[in-house]
Amino acid sequence: MDNSDWMLTERERGNGSTRLDRRHLGGAAWTSGNHVRPLVHGATYFAELLRTIREQREGDLLLFTDWRGDPDERLDGPGTGIGRVLAEAAERGVVVKGLVWRSHLDRFQFSETENRHLGEELEAAGAECLLDMRVRPGGSHHQKLLVMRHRGRPDLDVAYIGGIDLCHGRNDDASHSGDPQAVPFASAYGSRPPWHDVQLAIRGPAVGDVEACFRERWEDPSPLSRSPLVRLRELLHHEDTSADSIPPQLPDPPPCGSHTVQVLRTYPNRLLGGYPFAPDGERSIARSYLKALRRARSLIYLEDQYLWSPNVVESFARALRDRPGLRLIAVIPAFPDQDGRLTLPMNEVGRVTALERLRRAGGDRVAVYGLENHAGTPVYVHAKVCVIDDVWATVGSDNVNLRSWTHDSELNCAVLDGSADLRPPRDPGGQGDGARRFARDLRLELSLEHLDAGEPDSPYGPDDVCDPVRAFDTFAECAAALDAWHDGGRRGPRPPGRLRTYRPPDMSAPVRALAMPLYRLFVDPDGRPFKLRRRSAF
After folding, report:
1. Rounded Cα gap, residues 278 and 443, in angstroms
2. How far is CA 27 from CA 10, 30, 180, 449, in A?
3. How many Cβ atoms sit within 10 Å of the Cβ of residue 137?
4. Which pLDDT value is given to residue 119?
5. How, if at all, do strands 61-66 and 95-101 pair?
6. CA triplet 112, 92, 62: central angle to 5 degrees?
7. Which end of the chain is more exposed for a tag (fewer CB within 10 A), N or C?
8. Does the global pTM surpass 0.85?
9. Pick from 294, 301, 467: which is nearest to 393 by CA?
């Protein structure tokens, strides 16, 4: 197996203006020799983040981007608010720089106020955190990365990327009892919404690539906002919105593992002047999915917050039509994150239409599930994970919808492991690639949690999910038992597992006809250049 069988070449990325691939010797569009670990759950990520930040010393570097940051969100108990922890690092002499999204409409419970407060707390300690609104109208900066470099100690260098924001609601663990610092949410999830999410911890040369992504945005000379009102407010309040310089980038950390990592992004085709590092935008996340899906033969395992957009899921549907032995398992939220007579149909119509397309293509080879905790409360799936044939895996901030593939800024990492997994079946895709240890271990870790494997009354174990076909059947068996228990009035002991069969809402034709245009305009807009939209290309 050659890396280019699954990963994008520099040309396939389609963005000749980025420094990302030019950094590598020989023109490779990825780095090898990395060690990548999945951090499942916010509590796991936050505890490690607290430890690694506190290990940093004077002269070290900490860079982060986020969709939303709540300065009082506790990483691991009292006195560990993220704002305070980052400020303490700056006071120790760590160079701390951050970019967080400036929301368009804070009155709609987006993030401008919280992000402003985080920036103010950090700047008071000598750090620098800018509110970045360099997006398309209605768009956001959705990337979630944190890079730590250590002067003279490259073995400690690490990058974190994934779906977990540094904000309220994310600090949950495997029990899925929710973050005590909850966020306003749809009523179905209760007062403390359970939250399922995944981050990656990356060590090795790929840390330099993630850092380069941050630097491209930081060094963008265009104003942080084009809004005349925002610019006037900054002028009246004498706000300094220019980015200070960052110390030159250190050499990449040395190789330390068997993982090949490709950094993938979405940037929109920004109107009236694009990004200097992506003048026509970048859609390498979408292109990476399209390339990997063409090789899918056995199982696509997907965890996603949305799974919307008929145009996007067509690539999955095509793979299902072309490969009669291919199966798809999708784990998604059972309910949208918002209530409301208008917002609920807008959120649901894209998913209903997308799932219909998938089921027309794959029939009973498509299985879609929600999650619940042991109290029966739905778990909000915020993870963005895809594993194909236990070979290729991607984790990041990107959701499977048109917004994430074209319109908002996003950051994913695709991972190929040079170490073969010798547990049978050794080649589930039947192409001679062989199962890879990282991809299979990631799928098994997530699957076994959803099956309650390891619980005293659970009949499930690794042997039930290692084989993709058996895993598909095991998920169906587990969900059917829990569905039957609920449908029967919850009488008797609760069956093991957390999987519930996803049941799409009934939507009448008039509601669908009204909701679909609003969905396309407000919920899932298209950020591609018009020439690509006409060709339905990415």
Report:
1. 33
2. 7, 9, 47, 40
3. 11
4. 81
5. parallel
6. 50
7. N
8. yes
9. 301
Backbone dihedral region of 313: left (phi > 0), alpha (psi from -120 to 50 degrees) or beta?
Answer: alpha
Secondary-structure breakdown of the chain: helix, strand, coil percentages, each rounded to the nearest 5:
35, 20, 45
DSSP string, 112-172: HHHHHHHHHHHHHTT-EEEEE--S-TT--B---EEEEE-TT-GGG-EEEEES--BSTT---
Residues whose CB falls within 8 Å of the CB of residue 75, separated by 6 or more in sequence, listed in order? 46, 47, 49, 50, 81, 82, 85, 171
The Cα–Cα gap between 18 and 10 comes to 10
The two tokens of residue 103 are: 């929301």
Tens of pLDDT along 66-116?
Answer: 999 999 999 999 999 999 999 999 999 999 999 998 653 343 444 556 556
Provide the pLDDT for residue 443.
98
**Closest by CA position to 68, among listed 109, 112, 107:** 112
Residue 375 CB: number of other CB atoms within 10 A? Answer: 11
Amino acid occupying residue 172: D
Biggest CA-to-CA distance, the chain: 66
Return d(Cα 70, Cα 165) in angstroms, integer: 9
- pLDDT given for residue 233 in this prediction: 60
Euclidean distance between CA atoms 366 and 88, whole angstroms: 49
Burial class, 161, CB count within 10 angstroms (exposed 0-12 / middle 13-18 / buried 19+): buried
Distances (CA, A) of 362 to 315, 323, 474, 536: 12, 9, 18, 22
Q: What pLDDT is recorded for position 105?
A: 38
Dist CA 201 CA 313 (whole Å): 28
Q: Which of 402, 348, 340, 373 is nearest to 526 (CA)?
A: 402
Residue 282 near residue 267 (C-beta atoms within 8 A): yes
N-terminal to C-terminal alpha carbon distance within the chain: 26
* Helix (H/G/I), strand (E/B), else coil: 174: coil
Question: Residue by residue, what is the 3-state secondary structure of 69-98?
Answer: ECCCCECCCCCCEHHHHHHHHHHCCCEEEE
Low-confidence stretches of the chain (pLDDT beneath 70): 102-116, 226-241
* Residue pointed to by tokens 């084989």: 467
